[in-house]
Amino acid sequence: MLLARWLCRTAALLGAGIVVFGAAAARADDDSAFHELETKYIFGNFTVGSSTGIEGEKAFESENRIDLGKRGGRYGALQSVFEFEYTPNQFTQIEFGPILSAHDIRGVPGLDDRTAAGIGGFEAAFRSVLLDRGALPLAVTLAIEPEFHSIDETSGAHVVNYGLETKLQADAELIKNRLYLGFNLLYEPETTRNDLGGWDDESTIGGSVALAWQIIPNVAIGADLWYLRHYDGLTFRTFTGDAVYLGPTLYWKIDRKMLLSAAWETQIAGHEIGMPGPFDLTDFSQTRARLLFEYEF
Amino acid sequence: MMAKLAATRRCIVVLLMTMALQPFGGGASAQQAAAVSIAVKGGRFVPSEIRAPANRPLTISVKNLDSAAIEFESVSLRVEKIVAPGAQGAVRVRPLAPGRYEFFDDFHQQTRGTLVVE
Lengths: 297, 118
Known about the structure:
- The complex is a heterodimer of chains A (about 300) and B (about 120).
- Chain A is mainly beta.
- Chain A has a single domain, classed as Beta Barrel (Porin), CATH 2.40.160.40.
- Chain A contains 1 helix and 12 strands, in the order αββββββββββββ.
- Chain A has one helix at about 1-30; strands spanning about 60-70, 75-85, 90-105, 115-130, 140-150, 160-175, 180-195, 200-215, 220-230, 240-255, 260-270, 285-295.
- In chain A, a hairpin with a 4-residue loop joins strand 10 and strand 11.
- The longest helix of chain A has 27 residues, at about 1-30.
- Chain A is globular and about 60 Å long.
- Chain B is α+β, with helices and mostly antiparallel strands.
- Chain B has one helix at about 1-20, and strands at about 35-40, 45, 50, 60-65, 70-75, 80-85, 90-95, 100-105, 110-115.
- In chain B, a hairpin with a 4-residue loop joins strand 5 (about 70-75) and strand 6 (about 80-85).
- Chain B is globular and about 35 Å long.
- The termini of chain B are far apart.
- Classes of the chains: A mainly beta (about 300), B alpha+beta (about 120).
């Protein structure tokens, strides 16, 4: 309850601050210089906006995720996905590509030391518009992302792992072409083959709220807040820990064909079952970051 | 475990089929499309504001009267179309809710217009 109250208060303060600042700046500037943005990546890409692209559009994406810090020792993990993105119609978008993994782990409790890199799997994404922006300034998209990992995202060990990240990606335009509010709901079940030939299931659920403000034409800055809960099993019976991440975001549409999206988030609250102290540093990292580059062709 | 994996696969297939068929739902695509026309002349859309009925598919015809190619594009309409000098192109747009939708020439981004759906 304390955590929920703290989250509500932080989100309200963050939102109020950016709305007031954004509204003041919007009045001061020439609004005709600001045009509409595709919202998919304006929240830094941990929170994803609802846009599904322009019909017929094809793009290449380099999507990089870095996780830093565990409970002691030195921990760094990089997952890079090189994706082809295609929008076949005005309602649907597909993406697919290989995953490259790299790990640098030394002296982390519960993890083997490792310095290694390799092809770590394959992932795809299917995104479909559920609610179009129209009379309401709200738009919602359903994203389903099947994944196969041959290298464990956390430990870097060789595994056989299947996941199905499912997200509701929503956003609202608070000030036309200037201020956007995004929110996501996440359910990600995973199953991993264990040493005895059986399968170990786990799942993560979560929700986020993010703000993005187009500060100058084609550049948006903002903040992203996530709450995540991890469970053993595919349902929500065995809770193992939770985490709250908060951090800044950046979106830059470099030119008509290229864009960059970045986010840097730190675990600011959380708890791991059976461990003293704050934070869940077994199921989640201390810090996480994303850097995405897209080239449309 | 094999049964669980098979059930998961069935769920994924059903979800993906639902998503793939979603654009054809609601019977909207069976409606006759409304048609509007616009031209580009002297680096401007003529007229700069066009109007169309709500909740009906729409075909926008774009005539390029300039000597350079244009790319008619809109983020909110989710369409783009390159039109050669002196040529005419058409884009088909899904049924839209009432509102104002921006469009522009992606090759000359100061060339902008608005579709008013009412």
